[in-house]
Write a structure and sequence with these properties.
With 199 residues, this protein is mainly beta. It is built from one helix and twelve strands. The strands form two sheets. The chain has a six-stranded antiparallel sheet with strand order 1-2-3-4-5-7. A six-stranded antiparallel sheet has the order 6-8-9-10-11-12, with no helix packed on it.
Length: 199
């Protein structure tokens, strides 16, 4: 991995990572597959395109989207479009959207207690008779601890990053805590999202 710019997100063209989503009752809801495409390096900057495929519990493809990752020096920047989770993107897939935002930054050198920069996305959706606006912010990002975790793929040593996701839209919104487990050379191994009661 020393020859690669990104320590935690593999940027080798052709790499594929599949995640299974479960609800609060451990019932499988579907899968999300990420594929690394179009990797290029120039003047110390590595760029890659990530393709995200969302499938339901029966394996039917629900949506495909793309976003970019840039790696330069000690910092990986993940396109703000990645902040939109699969189900949220699914409901707007046939509508005209305009998105702006702040990319998600991840240093290659992580340490427990480290605070990470916030990220955000602002989206305007053309719904015909009216426009709907929505903000998604990822706040209070912090490297919480180091921990081993064992999903079906095996056991991984990870940094655990906690954050709050705050959504705001015309019909309301809310703040939802989450954690991700990041393993060197693999990327995200596990993610949990909680409601306001911590479940």
């Amino acid at each position: 991995y020393a020859q690669e710019c990104s320590r935690y997100y593999p940027l080798r063209e052709g790499t594929s990572l599949t995640y299974t989503s479960y609800n609060g009752k451990d019932k499988e809801e579907g899968t999300i597959t990420y594929k690394v495409k179009d990797v290029s390096s120039n003047a110390g900057v590595t760029r890659a395109t990530m393709q995200m495929e969302l499938s339901d519990a029966k394996g039917k493809n629900m949506m495909t989207s793309e976003y970019g990752i840039t790696c330069e020096g000690d910092m990986v920047r993940i396109d703000f479009k990645s902040l939109m989770n699969g189900p949220m993107m699914q409901q707007f897939k046939d509508m005209e959207m305009d998105m702006t935002g702040t990319d998600l930054e991840l240093p290659n050198n992580l340490s427990v207690g480290q605070e990470l920069a916030d990220a955000s996305i602002h989206m305007k959706v053309n719904m015909g008779a009216m426009n709907m606006e929505m903000n998604v912010e990822t706040l209070n990002r912090k490297v919480e601890k180091k921990e081993s975790v064992t999903p079906p793929a095996g056991t991984f040593d990870c940094f655990v990053i906690s954050s709050d996701t705050r959504t705001k839209m015309m019909m309301g919104g809310g703040t939802f805590p989450s954690r991700i487990w990041l393993s060197e050379g693999v990327g995200m191994v596990k993610q949990e999202t909680y409601n306001k009661n911590g479940k």
